Structure formats: structure tokens, C-alpha cells
Sequence to fold (635 residues):
Amino acid sequence: MINKINTLGGYFHEYQKSTLDPESFWAQQAEFFFWRKRWQHVVQWEFKTPSIRWFDGGKLNITENIFEKNLYTHGDQTAIFWEPNDPNDAPRQYTYQELFHAVNQMANSLKREGISKGDTVIIYMPMVPELTIALLACARIGAIHSVVFAGFSAQALADRITNAEARLVLTADQGYRGNKVTPLKTVVDEALSQCQGVERVVVYQRAYVDVSMTPGRDVFWQEFISNASDDCVATEMDSEDPLFILYTSGSTGQPKGIVHSSGGYMVYSAYTFRNVFQYNNGDVYFCTADIGWITGHTYLVYGPLLNGAKIVMYEGVPTWPDAGRMWDIIAKYQVNQFYTAPTIIRSLLSMGNEYLLDKDLDSLKVIGTVGEPINEDAWHWVHDHVGQSQCPVVDTWWQTETGGVMISPIAGVTPTKPSFATLPLPGIQPVIIDNDGVEQTGNSVEGNLCIRYPWPGMARTIWRDHERFRQTYFANYENVYFAGDGVRRDEDGYYRILGRVDDVINVSGHRLGTAEIENAINEHPLVNESAVVGCPHAIKGQGIYAFVVCPQTSTGGEEGVKLSIKQGVNKRIGPIAKPDYIQIVSNLPKTRSGKIMRRILRKIAEGDASSLGDTSTLLDEQVIDEIIQGALVEV
Ligand code: WT7
Fold:
């Protein structure tokens, strides 16, 4: 069993050990796993190139640590409680033993197809158990999985298939989320008409609806796995072999394929899961994230399953059939740890407390949040009404790139403070650096959040673009990892995340690059150029505000253009990227050198035109007045 911290003193002790001698600290954590061959070096690193290697020389397979290592003790225990979208449909369950067989069967089928170690597989599926099986089957044979969230558009999917060089796509006929049906197979067909290289599409039948099947390329899941043995020896992986690629948005247009390792990620995901949530054997753990995001990878699949946890996997959305669904699920499965996002909390809060009436929430011990800063109202509501003032609320800060939680309370151990991620986990050394590169030491300071020393779960590269990896995270400040967030360390040494300092916005806990949205808008034939910024949004945290230069609006008038811009973004990226506000302007505020002054647009979108700061470098100051006059929010 992984070491669990139980007291605040214990935390400080572990933290100190981890900074004084990180190598022994992490070696000790790694001892709890099954290695086919032990590592030779705990860590070798430099942040210039950068090159980061954990447990080098070690051989392992992460699925052996989920299954073989634990089957004797909990083979018959539930691994997955699957709750369908429609509460009247039948739930499904898998024990560890059953999951093991299903994973092996799929692994053998992939092998039979010619997929082997180092090949990439794109997974575009709804939240059904087969999605988890797909990830683990890839991991079993050393294929690199790349899950694309099933809300992304055909174009976005095609971009990722091309970038990942995938030969095989796993998908489903349809997905159900609330009262919406997503025609996943149709989206895949459209994506494949725009990219090359995919030879096989495996279609899980969730709905048993008619879908078009391309002969020679498409096959149904049942047929694909038929006659495959459920016994499959795991492929031996080097610690540093990639486990998966997950795409995320950056400040430039093209999404980044973040690459995670086999050995380090295993140790980090399992260690942080056990500690942050204080998971005890037998507890039931429910994470609302979709596996299409990193939270689903680390804290629905790998972290919990490595700990032999019982997980609840939910297919649908939190507000359907009504805003009491989360509480029904918690009561039904007697959930002990509940991990969700501030945006979900805010949306449930806004629907009123009556949905909590008569719900049995007594099983809850820990509530966790992730994805964006949690405002005090949401924190207090979830703490008082959902946790009935009995459960610690852990506000966990981390990123796709960090692989697992970095700064967070340890449930029940670290005293919490609303809207603070509190203290770094053992092994994590945050530093605050100002824009001139000067480290801000001591307390009551603010600046850019960076991390000084590597940790096992950190990303190793961007798929096929190591130079971008270096530039994005290691070039701004020397010898540290730059997270892209602003942070304040208060008088108690507690960390409060202030939000992104780059051109990335966070909409309902989902990260979007403003450049990515601008590119999509600019594809509209009537649009000359555009600038996208974030704006405050009561439920989503941030909304999307687009300033668009569009001299002619053709027959549909302004409203017609706005509608077709929204449709265009929906098609290019997906519904999550649709702007909340589109303001048509005659020009964008630019410096004499032609750079858009986003700082000013951000202020206007925030409704704060009184403090625009220095505008003297602007080419044409008048344009600002026009934009303020036409603003779609109160300024
Ligand atoms: C960005 C990373 C990590 C899984 C979900 C998002 C923001 C994340 C918090 C938090 C304030 C947070 C940051 C970060 N963020 N957690 N507890 N408090 N902000 O992963 O899509 O990679 O986004 O989400 O801005 O950089 P992601």
C-alpha cells in the first residue's frame, strides 16, 4: 500500500523529506509497485533542453499494477459501477477480475489487428465502461492511447488523428448526454474524409442504431473482439516509454499533444490519488470528469484503479433529468469521495437547494474540485449543503501537463481556506517569479507560478514538437517549469491561484486557446480579423468574448453573420468554443507595430473600461471609444 499521510505534522515531515532528498523520497514511493526490472536511476534531468527521465532502466506495465499485483486480494471486488445517462436504464458493474478479462480480450484483438508497442490509437467514445477498457487495453500492449473528448468536432478530431499518426480509431455509434444524442460515428466518418492513415474503425454499439459502415475499414466492437482470448501477457515497457498523448490548448492555434510516461505517471497518479482524497480500501469514489480530459485519465482511471478503488463512472450530465442527479448517484452508490468542478457546483447551486432535500449524502467524506478557481460562494455552498459541514473540500490545482495534483489540501489533514489551493504536495517545489525573472521569496507575494524540481508525473514532451515543449514551459524562466498561471502566496504561505497569464481561457474548467477560436472565426468569408478574450461568466467561470472586424454583413444582417460565425466555430472546434458575445467592430485596437492590444479588450470584456492603463502606443485611440460604446456587457 502506498504511504498515506494522516496528520499535519506528518505532511510537513514528508514534505521536508521530499525536498531535502527527492530521490529517496520518490524511490520509496516507487517501491510499492510491481516492476519487472528495478530502475537504475531515480531521476535524471535538466530543464534546458529539457530532458526528464524518471526511474530510468525500470521495466513495468501499468496494467500489471492494476490487475496482477492485486487480483489475489481484490479480484472479486467492484472496480467500476457504471451509471447510465438515463436513470431508468440498467446500471452495469465490473469486478477487477471481470475488467481484467475484458481488457485482455480487447488487448488481444488490437494485437491481432497488428497494433503493437509504440503505435498510437485514437479513442473517441462516450462515457461507457468500454472506454476505460479501451485505454487499459492499449496500455496492456504498449500502444499509446490518445483520447479525444467526444464533444469535439470532426475537424478537431481530424487534426488530432493526423498529428498523432493514428492507424486505428475506437468509437461508438452514438453517445447519450442528458437529452442530447451525439452521432459519434458520423463525426468520425466526416473526420476521416479529411485525413489519412486510418485503416480500421472499431464501433461500439451503445445505441444499436443504423450507422454507415465502410467495408474493409469499419467493424463493430463485438465482432472485433470475437474469439479473442481473455488472457494476454502484458508488454514490458520502459519507464520512459509514452503511455498516452492528450491534446490540450495553448496560446497559439495548434493544440498540443502532451505526452505522459509509463513509470513516472504511474507512481505519481497513484500516490496523489491516495493522499489527496485519503482513499481507504473499500471506499466508493466518484469523479464527474469525462475521460476525454486529464482529470478523467488520472483520477477516474489510473490513480483509483492502481489503488484498487471502487469507482463510479457516470455517462451523463449533472443536470439531467434534474439538478438532483449527482445527489441521487451519491446516495445510490454510497459515495465516499466526490471529485467535481466549480462550474458544476455553480450551476447546481443556481438551481436552488430544493434538489438536495431528502437526499442521503451521509456517506460523503471528501469533496474535491478542479479545473478553475473556486469562488467563495460555491465553496461555502458545497461545503455547507453538500458536505453538510462534515467534509473537507479540497481545491486541487494542476494541469494536463503536470499529470496529477500539485497544490492541494490533503483531505482532513491540511486546514482549508476557501478559494485557496493551500500547500504543495510532497515532492512539489513551487516558486513565484515576477515578469522580470526575479524570484519572489517569503510570504505575501504574487507572480508567475513555476516549479523548481521535476516530479514523476510531469509531461515529457509535446508529441513531435519537443521545441514547442521547451519554448512553452522552460524558456520564459531559467531552470524551472513555467505553469502559465498567476499565483499569490498569502501571509500564511498558502497558495491562491489567480488564473492564466497567457492567452488561454478557462470555460467551464475546459481550456481553450484564444488563437484557436480566432482562427476558426477568421475562416468565415466575411470576417477580416478578430480578437478573442475571456469575460466573467456566472456559471462557466469565464465566457468567450469575440471582437470581430466584418465590414460587410451581407443579407442576414449583423445577427445573421453572428449566427453563422457561431456555427462555424461549432464546426471547427465544437460547442464548448462558441462565443458568448460577438461584437462587430470597425477596427481592433493595435499598436503602431500592428500588435492587437488584448489587454484593453480584456478590460472592456470584463466591464472595466475605467482603468484601461496606458493607451499611448495605440495607432488609433478613437477605436477604443467606438468599442466601448458598442460593448455587449456593462462597462
Ligand atoms: C488550468 C489547467 C487539471 C485538470 C483540469 C484542467 C486551471 C486547474 C485549478 C484550481 C485554479 C485551476 C489553471 C491551470 N486550474 N485547477 N484548483 N484553481 N485554477 O486541466 O485543461 O490542463 O487546465 O486550469 O489555470 O493552468 P487543464
User: Anything to note?
Assistant: The first strand starts at residue 41 and ends at 46.
